[in-house]
Amino acid sequence: MEPTLRLVAITNCPAGIAHTYMVAEALEQKARALGHTIKVETQGSSGVENRLTAQDIADADYVILATGRGLSADDRARFAGKQVYEIAISQALKNIDQIFTQLPTHSHRFAADSGVKLGQQEVQQGSVMSHLMAGVSAALPFVIGGGILVAIANMLVQLGLPYTDMAKGAPSFTWIVESIGYLGFTFMIPIMGAYIALSIADKPAFAPAFLVCYLANDKGLLGTQSGAGFLGAVVLGLAIGYFVLWFRKIKLGKALQPLLGSMLIPFVTLFIFGVLTYYVIGPLMSDVMGGLLHFLNTIPPSMKLGAAFLVGAMLAFDMGGPINKTAWFFCFSLLEKHIYDWYAIVGVVTLMPPMAAGIATYITPKLFTQQEKAAASSAIVVGATVATEPAIPYALAAPLPMITANTLSGGITGMLVIAFGIKRLAPGLGIFDPLIGLMSPAGSFYLVLGIGLVMNIALIIILKGVWMKRKAARPELIHEQ
Predict the structure, then answer these.
(1) pTM greater than the 0.90 cutoff
(2) Which residues cross the membrane (predicted)?
(3) 329 confidence band (pLDDT: 50, 70, 90)
(4) Could you give the count of Cα atoms lying within 13 Å of 179 in the half-sphere of its Cβ?
(5) Hey, what CATH topology would domain 6-109 get?
(6) Which residues share a beta bridge with 65?
(7) Is 331 a catalytic residue?
């Protein structure tokens, strides 16, 4: 009989929404089944939950790190000297049994200054994409909270409440709620830039990046037609992060070294990049952003539909992977400029792969394994609230038919979203978005989602049926399920 182990774990993923919590639950269930004790710290979109104490870590026989955006220097220091098992969070769900069997053989003693190497993970720790996703993860609560408040204000106006801004005297309640909501959109950009820099160079980079990114989006102060937008946050966040990373290596002697991080780095960085932003970077990024906005607003309908097909196909292709995240980041970043139709594609297409797979399982159960049938209801429910990851096990079992079905239906649905003029104010609750005012018009949303699901389900049944017949005829051509 295996000895009882005391385990601790950390889970995080770039967006901090789905994988973080799904893997944590899977680890807890598997540990209990094996008779082990485990405590899992989740680093998700709502912050750190179930935080591991120093005593938890000290008492642990092994540490499991299932991460998608790496660990901060402070986190790495917590596990110095412990036996650590590392795995990409994208690989954890399908290899949950392997994690526990490999603990004695694949764990290594952790050094505080060692990087977290995760092999074939979607977003490699220390990569530019990992830093960008750290910024997006921090900006999400700003745009979600702000978007819901704006939606509530709009709903109140539609119900007949007055809307009066400050220029006309005492502002109305609806105007106040809407204005507070738009603060979320205003600050999502400096927060994004600040957390990109923080991800690269830790705390000394945070304040200068925040202030400079705010400056880059202040049209009044810069005297420009447009703020630098998300492009400014990306450029300045990365530039300041890597500058501070270099700056921190300077040795000033025992007397001045303590002042480096708290005073010298923020002051020098803010001065250099503040001046550069005012005279050069801000106006340049403003012109680029203005050109992009002009292009998006004047793009011919045929080209816009083609771009919408591409975005929808990318979102559905790898279900939370790097291609999905690239398309998601583009659509999400336009919210700050009050361009909502591209993010509506995200709000429809990302629902489809898990819901379609789950529904198809009920319609044609003979095409799916017992394990896939057991997960069908969960895939439908979780998928309906914009977590695409439950579709991954279905795609892994039959990559060619499932990914083809998802990608084709996602692309066509992206075109329908644009054609029907659907808009989405902020991330929300998937199929419930129209009910809380985040997605409109509601009728068009449900119609397009319905059409997309029918297409996706039909393609899954047809393509997987063909795939299964071919597999039965020539099993050597296709990996066993």
Answers:
(1) no
(2) 132-153, 173-198, 228-247, 259-281, 342-363, 375-396, 403-422, 442-463
(3) confident
(4) 10
(5) Rossmann fold (3.40.50)
(6) 10, 86
(7) no
